[in-house]
Design brief:
It is built from eight helices and six strands; from the N terminus they run αααββββααβααβα. With about 180 residues, it is of the alpha+beta class. Helix 2 (about 15-35) packs parallel to helix 8 (about 165-180).
Length: about 180
């Protein structure tokens, strides 16, 4: 049996933990700034059941910390529509777009435009990020019908490559959110 030891150098590496805290705060500021950019009044124009924006974080998404910005926050299997920006530490930044069954049927043209740059999650759970990101399967309409029948929703994702410059990353994500919202008709 292998002996388990404490990494004492890591445990007392104050500089490392300070850098992690600073980066966590930067991402939180980025997400709050984006949430403020897309007001509830504006979101209601795109989806009448919008519940606004929410920034949240956690420490154990498949063993890694994460931060999330949700816009619209409507996860109903029938009428749902949500845009999620996920910073998953050690994995990257991602955009997820969730459509309930009826919303997906109503916005087929929007979904067709979205599919030009996004991948189908093709999974029965919208929260199984590790499995979703590892699949990277090509989208097909038959897959879409099958997933809607089994899960009651569609979800698409795209990896975002942030820029070291905070303002450039802000503009990049803002532009991506605008693309999703402006094609939601």
């Amino acid at each position: 049996m292998t002996e388990v030891t404490l990494d004492l150098d890591l445990l007392i590496n104050k500089a490392l933990f300070q850098r992690i805290k600073e980066q966590t705060s930067l991402v939180e500021n980025l997400f709050h700034r984006l949430a403020n950019e897309f007001t509830q009044k504006e979101l209601l124009k795109f989806h009448s059941n919008s519940k606004g924006s929410k920034v949240s974080k956690g420490h154990n998404l498949e063993n890694s910390p994460y931060q999330v910005l949700d816009l619209l926050r409507e996860f109903d299997e029938q009428s749902g529509f949500n845009i999620r920006v996920l910073n998953w530490w050690g994995h990257g930044f991602f955009m997820f777009v969730y459509y309930g069954n009826l919303t997906a049927e109503k916005y087929q043209q929007s979904i067709s435009r979205l599919k030009t740059t996004y991948m189908d999650c093709n999974h029965l759970s919208p929260w199984a990020y590790g499995q979703i990101l590892s699949k990277h399967e090509a989208y097909s309409n038959s897959d879409s019908d099958s997933i809607i029948e089994k899960a009651g929703f569609l979800q698409f994702f795209k990896q975002i490559m942030p820029d070291p410059n905070f303002n450039k990353t802000y503009e990049l994500i803002k532009k991506e959110i605008r693309f999703i919202l402006e094609n939601h008709y």
